[in-house]
Amino acid sequence: MTPQDEDFLRRAIELAVKARASGDAPFGSLLVGPDGDVLAEEHNTVTSDGDISAHPELKLARWAARELDPPTAAATTMYTSCQPCDMCRGGIERSGLGRVVYALSNEQLSTLKPGGGWPQVPQEGPALFDEARTPIEGFYH
Ligand SMILES: [Zn+2]
């Protein structure tokens, strides 16, 4: 981690402060291009948007997938005030970003946040293979 990485992490922490000041959970993130330009910034808006997916990391991943070509996305770094949760990690991987740098780890966050985590939802399957494969067969060829 470079001093420049730490400067961008400080900006992510500022965005977390901004989120908290506006009544949302205190998390912020930014996306930086290969030349060190800040391409986009976000903070958590789960409460203000009424959207459980409004984590800054996922919002930036969606923005990158929509607005950047794959080589550009792969050359970006996401700086985030806390390690991305599982939901955001999936979005980041699908968006093809190049790198993530975080301040607090999820383990460190858990020492500051009572409770934490959500109950697992039972999943049942597989079932109806012949019927379920029909809309998929041939799609990826
Ligand atoms: Zn998340």
- CATH class type: Alpha Beta
The CATH topology name reads Cytidine Deaminase, domain 2
The CATH superfamily label reads Cytidine Deaminase, domain 2
Strand content: 15-25%
**What's the count of strands?**
4
Low-pLDDT runs: none
Tally of helical segments: 7
Q: Which CATH architecture?
A: 3-Layer(aba) Sandwich
Number of domains: 1
The average pLDDT is: 96
Percent range of helical residues: 40-55%
From the alpha carbons, calculate the radius of gyration and give it in angstroms.
18 Å
GO molecular function, one term: catalytic activity
InterPro entries: CMP_dCMP_dom, Cytidine_deaminase-like
Organism: Actinomadura mexicana
Pfam family, one: dCMP_cyt_deam_1
Question: Short summary of the structure?
Answer:
The protein has 141 residues and is of the alpha+beta class.
Describe the model.
The protein is of the alpha+beta class and 141 residues long. The chain has a single domain, classed as Cytidine Deaminase, domain 2 (3-Layer(aba) Sandwich). Helices cover 44% and strands 16% of the residues. It contains seven helices and four strands; from the N terminus they run αββαααβαβαα. It has helices at 3-21, 46-49, 56-67, 70-74, 86-95, 106-112, 129-133; strands at residues 28-32, 38-43, 77-82, 99-104. It has a four-stranded mixed beta sheet, with helices on both faces. α5 (86-95) links the parallel β3 and β4 (99-104). α3 packs parallel to α5 (86-95). The longest helix is centred in the first third of the chain and has 19 residues, at 3-21. The radius of gyration is 18 Å and the shape is globular. The protein starts with a helix and ends in an 8-residue tail after the last helix. The relative contact order is 0.14. The mean pLDDT is 96. The structure holds zinc ion. Zinc ion is lined by residues 55, 57-58, 84-85, 87-88. It comes from Actinomadura mexicana. Residues 3-120 form the CMP/dCMP-type deaminase domain. GO terms for molecular function: catalytic activity. This is tRNA(Arg) A34 adenosine deaminase TadA.
